[in-house]
């Protein structure tokens, strides 16, 4: 019957090449489209941002100039108001009405105020503000109280009931004393110079916002509905927060209507405001979106065109190959001899058909050679002494040569169709099946050394085996071919040689076991050390040597290490025959054959009781020497630091103008000296917090001639400062106590220090109290003088809390310490 082979349309080369070209073409075009759109959008955003920033800078400069002009005009007019004019309401009103230019600059008029903030004159008079008090307005108060010229924040006008803001300058007499104020008012609810500037510069879609950063309030806007609007709180809009913090530039953000906009901001120095311009990105990038849509349409059309051309070209080029495949299908019938295919044209496909014709000729020649080779191989397998066999996937024999048949003592007919369980014991069969399984499942050639136990007689043999997978025409494994050589005698000789060599080299106690840990022999040193004779332990495991000094699983872990790593050694507490438990240094070594299989274990051991005693004495002596050396080092460091203090005091006497600074430095050096003094006197180098506090207090009291009283409760459980934190804690305490003495203690006669337990059981709290008042600046973050900066830099990252608070007329500094900075010392009750 003629075999036919049909190709699925999805698997045909024509389809796959067309699809591949289509995918490549699509990926290229779409990547180019995406890249071009992205780059164009970035460039457009940059250019629009630069243009927008230039426009907003221009408008901001105009606003700044307008504000400066109005302030200058107010300053000029205020300079012309004398005390005589100010004290006469009639003269003052006449004076203001004559300044028509000034009234033109302020659409809500100008007012003159007395020192109490009450309006004494205005222009125009129709506003009716005379007699009203505006002292609560920031710009009025700044002019009357501080004599400053300022621009006020927008508020709701008392008369107009619309948003207004004022500019105020002080009126001074001949001696420069403030006698009143002149203010110009701009009504934001009606057209003004700000709205005129916005209308003159606004483009299509662009809107302007004039913002006061200090109040986060919109002063004026292209959209009048947003005037006096409060901007979102900090953290709601990152770009807005940057603008308020003083950033000048452009960026993208989302406005309150969830619309993405391109925004730029420029500061107005005259008023401390900034001007922002916004443009919706949808409108800004509309040309880019349109171009992208046209590129998508062009990409789709080009893709369809490329697909059709590719399909036609591939179909035309593969036509000869399709004709050849149909010819091969007609020759696939086994009854037909392979024939050479005609070559239609001399291209790559013609070369392929020519190559196939040469393969057909070569296969015919090889088929004849294979028949001859199979006949020769059969003769060889029947006459070699090595076992040769073939097994199917179930482990049943398909072939056994003459040598294997003679070994089993049965003809081939009684072997074929049976597996190894008919001839070998169960353990051997299980091991052989593991090797067979590797060949069948992984397709690997397995080289192994197999121990074989016959079911009849129990004779043990060792074989060197090679097993190779056999595959059918489809590449599937259907059987294995095995070759096994008997190496039993050679293995026995190798085992004896290895055991003898290791036993000869071992001069200490020695135990030889089999692969399962059963003792085969011991040497004389074993009997001398353990008290057991060789006859008493042969056939047992080493469990009788174990003591209760080791955790459960210790022995199993030792055997596992020797098995997987080849060796194991450790200190082991063992049990002599007389019941004595003593330490030994024990080494276990796995003995392997030439193939890497473990056959025996050799365990050597020696008594290390004397060595451990000597080592303990040595460590004790070293610890004592180290303690003496450490105390001597701390003592010398203290002496050197005290020498430095002496030099600083001499320098202070020669330069009394620097005595405070030098005394401060002396206190810091003495703080470190106290730490090393305490470490030098202690048995160890540990420092107790209570002792350190008292010592530093005594040093400062002596230097600054101010009583420093330290209160430590009776029955106090001291705490020890971690060695690496001793010097930082000493410097912190020195700075805190010194600050207390300098900022109130010295003036009022004393400083009180109390050492108490903290909120937690392992926390200690030190309070330092002195007379005085905390200044407002000292309570603000970021305001640190040099002493506090030193304390901040020395503060441990954890385990230390510092705070200062006002308690009546006392300033109290609280320093709380806990682990890992300190730890309780229950051994040293005070």
Any overview of this molecule?
The chain is an alpha+beta fold and 830 residues long. It is 46% helix and 23% strand. It is built from 22 helices and 29 strands. Strands 1, 2, 3, 4, 5 and 6 form a six-stranded antiparallel sheet that branches. It has a five-stranded antiparallel sheet with strand order 8-7-11-10-9, with helices on both faces. The longest helix has 68 residues, at 13-80. It starts with 12 loop residues before the first helix and ends in a 6-residue tail after the last strand. Residues 1-5 have low confidence and may be disordered.
The general outline is flat
Q: Low-confidence parts, pLDDT < 50 over ≥5 residues?
A: 1-5
Beta strand count:
29
What proportion strand? Answer: 15-25%
Approximate helicity band: 40-55%
Mean pLDDT reading: 80
Total number of helices: 22
Structural class: alpha+beta
Overall radius of gyration: 51 Å
* Biggest sheet statistics: 6 strands, antiparallel
Report the span from N to C terminus. 109 Å
